[in-house]
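pinned: reference chain
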Amino acid sequence: MEATIQKIEKYFNQYMNYSSNVLLNLNTDTLISRIKALPQCKQILEELKCKYPITDDELSTLAVSEIHKYKQLFESHDPIYYVAFCFQWHAYQKEHEAFQMKTYADKARWLTKTDKDNIDKVQIFKTDVIRPIIDYLIDQIKEHHTIYYYLDKYKSRVERYTFCLLAEKKELGLQKDLALYLFDQDLPFYQEPNLGHGRPDFVIDLECNDKPFVIEVKKMDVLEPAAIDEALRQFKAYLGQFPSYGCLYIFTQDSKRHLEYPKVIDENLTVRCVYLGEKTPSQL
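pinned: its structure tokens
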């Protein structure tokens, strides 16, 4: 977790130190690409986009005309909405406006009320559009994505070192191995609590999270879409019983389809896969 935050801060500090206004678009694209390459950040940004989707039509209107009338709209929404807007606005500009000569700072006209030359538009753009994204990512990693950090760390350990010990285990054995790992990390979890209409495998309750995190473990040698859909249906029933969010955690030997994960299902539910085969990424 700390290593990821340090990388984010390092990339952003480098970005802020770039003095060339001409290269603002290139430097901004490079920063966002490096940030999105970090697994935790990619996950957080996908969830953010899922929670606050903004259509291309909306972004096109904002990019083309009458931008000032939307400024009040931005200010009336919560800060997270504004972060979601900034992130998706940049993605739209990069994809659809790449060959225009204007910089991102010139296009983000809601940031200033005047076009006077003495306004440092580039600095305002960096602090008012890009900085909120960076701050949001760091806050989310610190507070709400602690569990994903540990789950990804466990996944790396299994896939690198212990897959041969787990490949033949049944689902219950895999649950116990994950339980031992969670115990070693001092995470406060309950195993198979009775919710009245079922027993999810794990419920983790962290003080920094406003709602508990539920983990459901499955073993699927082959990742069949129908089987995953059925597991998700069952899992959503658990999540619907009390305010919570969680992860369907699948152990598999499917050497190809496991590369499609992690996948965001909605703002409260993700799917992750732990590969138990012997093939390395270069052999797939």
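why pinned: The two ends are 28 Å apart (CA to CA). Residues 175 and 217 are 6 Å apart (CA to CA).
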